[in-house]
Amino acid sequence: MATKRLQELRRRIGVGQAQAKALIELSRDTSDDVDRAAAALADRHPLPASFAMEDATARQIWREWLAEALSGNWDARYLRRRRTIARRHAQLGLGQELMCAVVASAEDELIALAERVHARSARKRRAAHTAIRAACRLDRTILLDRYYRYRFAQTRTMQSQARRRLEAEVAAHQSFANTLLDNAAVGVMAVDRHGRLTHTNRKMQQLLGYSTEELADRRGWLLAAFPDPQDHQEAELYFGAVAAGGPPEGRTLLTVRHKDGSQRVLEFWSTPLLIEAQRHGAVTIAFDVTDRQRLEQQLIRAERLAAIGELAASLAHEVRNPLAGIIGAIQVMRSQMPTEDSRREVLEEVLHQMGRLDSTMRDLLIYSRPKPLEPRRCRIEQVVDRVLTVVAAEPGFRRMQIIKNYSAEMPEIELDPDQMEQVCMNIVLNGAQAMESGGRITIASHADNSQVALSFTDDGAGMSPFQVRRAFEPFFTTKSRGTGLGLCICKRIVEAHGGSIRLDSRPREGTRVTISLPTQFVGVGRSQRRTESSADPDAA
Questions:
Q1: What integer pLDDT is reported at residue 169 of this predicted model?
Q2: pLDDT for the residue 369
Q3: Which residue(s) pair with 191 in the sheet?
Q4: Which residues of the chain have pLDDT under 50?
Q5: Strand pairing partners for 447?
Q6: Considering the domain 187-288, what is its CATH architecture?
Q7: What span, in angstroms and rounded, lies between the C-alpha atoms of 216 and 208?
Q8: Rounded distance, CA 405 to CA 398, Å?
């Protein structure tokens, strides 16, 4: 391939047999003159380092260069020699003009030599001039071609190395930034100027329960994370504004349903992503404020309880004692009336209403001054069965169908059976009252390694999202005769056991109440409270 290229260059430049013959003829008559020309060139023109040869002086290098030019032999050795010089020249970072200056100096010296040798023959002089210029043009072409090739390869290699270094630096910075984001204590989500999701850190994925690919489908994950229509509308407006480039100012609290089904309260903050005053997207950060919200609610509830406790203590003395006397007096009056006396019905209705009032006062006292737990090991299904035995005789349960789906592997757990009976009784009665015309109540239980769960599902009218959110608030009720304390007391008792209670309902789709209790008792029982009180020096 190299020989064919050399032949092509010779053909294009015009270096053929005639030029070789003219140079050979010149060299036969100039052996001594070539030595003198090499010495003169060595004195006048220092050679670049790329022309250096091992153990050779500058005069010897010039002598060999002039001899090669006059040999008329442009073979593979000649081509390798020129290419080696060009490669060294490029590797040393020397300019191309230095090579061209060497060839130009050799050309001038050879033409001057031809002028002296062929001074008497114009024909030979012209032929020698033509051959020298052609040969030197071939030298320049080969040297520059190979020089540019090596320089281009060097530049490409340097650019490739620089690009790899830059890519490595960018990757290192990107990895560092991702590591910082992934180890941040807050969730981070970024969108570009078109509203497309570009990044979420590990914490955001943990808070929401969805991967970056799943979160990229904004419509899909919003439907899953915010099943409640009102919550979904609020979330759609918020994240739609973020994607459109106008994130709302200040914090936004949203109740999010995690992929595992749990609910969390997250606080979102969003800000535009500006680079040189140009908007390139938006960044949203999220905090899990579930515990903070719960503590705030517990504080509010504690303040309410303090007020209720004072009121309940006063009512207990001012109302219950006179009420007991009134009930006793009416019972005596009724017992003295004949059986057929029409006034007995009036007195019975009065006693019924007095009983309701006494029940309300009792609920109020229980809620404001809860009894300490007296836990012991038992099975939760046994508590439920005792409740069902009691309510079976109630008139409202004659049209009810009770379905029990108990797990066969339910363990014994520590709980206060009396107070847990009160919880189950309240939930079952609520379900029955929601189906006055009859229906079905399904009671199911299951257990895992650390918790047991008990659910009550009815076929009643269901509840609206507003009612579900407020169901456990004190004094909130949907019944005409309710006190609004039943579910509050249930929640208090379940939480005292270290468990949780959850209500799921939709209009016309029934209601499900789920109680989760730990298999190991983590609440505060009566004996523990006594121990704490005796250990407190200020308790006396």
A1: 92
A2: 65
A3: 197, 282
A4: 1, 527-540
A5: 452
A6: 2-Layer Sandwich (3.30)
A7: 13
A8: 20
Q: What is the pLDDT of residue 233?
A: 87
User: CA 250 to CA 29: how far, in whole Å?
Assistant: 99
Supply the Cα-derived Rg of the chain in whole angstroms.
50
> Which two three-digit tokens encode residue 286?
């999220």
Domain 376-527, CATH number (from 3.40.50.1100, 3.30.9.10, 3.40.1190.20, 3.30.565.10): 3.30.565.10
Return the pLDDT at 247: 67
Q: CA 370, CA 368: separation in Å to the nearest integer?
A: 6
User: What is the sign of the dihedral through the CA atoms of 501, 506, 508 and 509?
Assistant: negative
Distances (CA, A) of 11 to 23, 73, 80: 17, 15, 19
* Number of helical H runs and strand E runs in the chain: 19, 12
Dihedral angle sign, alpha carbons of residues 219, 225, 229, 232: negative
Q: Are 22 and 128 in contact (CB under 8 A)?
A: yes
Instruction: With beta carbons less than 8 A apart as the criterion, state whether 242 and 286 touch.
Output: no
Instruction: Please give the span between the terminal C-alpha atoms of the chain, in angstroms, as a whole number.
Output: 109
Enumerate residues 6+ apart whose C-beta is below 8 A from 532: none
The domain segmentation of the chain, as residue ranges, is: 2-158, 187-288, 294-368, 376-527
Please state, in angstroms and rounded to a whole number, the distance separating the CA atoms of residues 4 and 27.
27
Give the model's pLDDT for residue 513.
93
Does the predicted model carry a pTM greater than 0.70? no
Specify the DSSP element, H or E, that contains 159: helix 122-182
Would you say 323 and 361 are in contact if contact means Cβ atoms under 8 Å apart? yes
pLDDT in tens, 145-203: 889 988 888 888 889 999 999 999 998 988 888 888 888 888 898 888 888 888 888 88
SS3 per residue for 12-61: HHCCCHHHHHHHHHHHHCCHHHHHHHHHHHHHHCCCCHHHCCCCCCHHHH
Neighbours of 158 (CB within 10 A): 10
Q: Which residues pair with 376 in a beta bridge?
A: 415
> What's the one-letter identity of residue 296?
E
- Residues β-bridged to residue 184: none
265 phi, psi to nearest 5 deg: -100, 120
pLDDT tens digit string along 205-255?
888 888 888 888 888 888 888 888 888 888 888 888 888 877 677 778 888
